[in-house]
Amino acid sequence: MLSVSEAQSLVLAKAHVLSAAPVPLSYELLGQVLAEDVVSDIDMPPFDKSLMDGYAVRSADLSDGKALLTVVEELTAGQTPKRALAAGQATRIMTGAPIPAGADAVVMIERTRPASDDRVQIEDRPPRPGQNIMPRGREMRRGEIILSAGAPLRPQEFGVLATVGRITIAVIPRPRVTILSTGDEIVDAPEKPGPGQIRNGNGPMLQAQVVRAGGIPQYLGISRDRAEELRSKIKQGLQSDILVLSGGVSAGKLDLVPGTLGELGVQAHFHKVEMKPGKPVFFGTWKKTLVFGLPGNPVSALACFELFVRPAIRRLAGHEKPGPFFVEATLAENFTYKTDRPTYYPAWMNWEGKGYQVRPVPWFGSPDLRALTQANAFIFIAAGEHQLPAGQVVSVMKTEDES
Ligand code: AMP
Ligand code: MG
Known about the structure:
Layout: H1 4-14, E1 21-24, E2 38-39, E3 49-50, E4 54-57, E5 66-75, E6 89-93, E7 105-108, E8 112-116, E9 119-123, E10 133-134, E11 145-147, H2 155-163, E12 168-171, E13 176-182, E14 186-187, E15 198-199, H3 202-213, E16 216-223, H4 227-237, E17 242-246, H5 257-263, E18 267-271, E19 282-286, E20 289-294, H6 298-316, E21 325-331, E22 335-339, E23 343-352, E24 355-360, E25 377-381, E26 384-388, E27 393-398
Parallel strand pairs: 5-6, 13-16, 13-17, 14-15, 17-20, 21-24
Antiparallel strand pairs: 1-12, 2-11, 3-10, 4-6, 4-7, 5-9, 8-9, 18-19, 19-20, 21-27, 22-26, 23-24, 23-25, 25-27
The protein binds adenosine monophosphate and magnesium ion.
């Protein structure tokens, strides 16, 4: 049977970055990947500017740090200087205002006191030329490349793009991911399940996972385990970048998903991976569309999504590192576990001063989604019988930021 990493390689080999398009700069692009190099249209700062509220001075006037200076002008941010400083003169200046000609240092207000209407007494150490001044172009120069294609957009990138006046920007679009739940026994959340029925937890869960991965979910609802209904819903789903089905991929009588996908021309790349939970997972392609058949058990569906679908979404969205992301953590308690397959075991991980610590959560197997409300990660455990002592270093798959 295929290993998880072999299966991941097959997925990534079929996942091609989507074509970039120019779009208006908006916070909705948060996390998307820049598709062009960005050049500054200005020097920043555009002028030598004061970093303090205080007095712009000539350092030569303050060789011993003390002087009584004549105040010739007052400048707040947004104003421009009209008076150059001559010997014995100072300009009262606020943070962000341009430095007047002749001045080469700013003395902070706390080191000064007003002496009379137009005089100020400075009592400081001798100022260093350039003190409390940010020179023009220190942050960036006009014509300089300040952001490169491939950069994921974080808040600081938005600030820099606005600073250089960009109102449209080329980015890789978010992948469109269609979600289809399957199963005769599944009813949607508003319904009271009848005998033998359960509610559709996977639909909303997978949509949220798509959003977390940076994609746009489209929900097709539930298909009964009937070939015709599956066919028509799958056809619709194949129009998006990725189609994710849940249920119907195992070996049961009504597990019709792989067969129906095959009839519709979806080329199968794998069906079954050496892992727990999630062994029956299916992956195929139809033209450029990636098709994932996730097992119906909710923890299997969630884990398979994190291991295969999320990296695919990230790759289509242009991220250089598709994940999943693993860190090392020390076990917070003894952990005894026996498994015939490599296992991803729900756990709680947190930063404990020097490193990550991790604790398995009580878990009753692949149907037990509730256990995952107490978890934020999965401990990776190789096949075998393990008696892991507290303090043992283990590999942990991070699925979310700590909170
Ligand atoms: P299947 O993969 O279709 O054999 O389903 C495996 C198990 O997962 C069965 O117990 C199903 O009832 C359950 N299951 C399937 N789909 C869902 C769903 N959308 N939400 C919650 N549980 C599901
Ligand atoms: Mg089923």
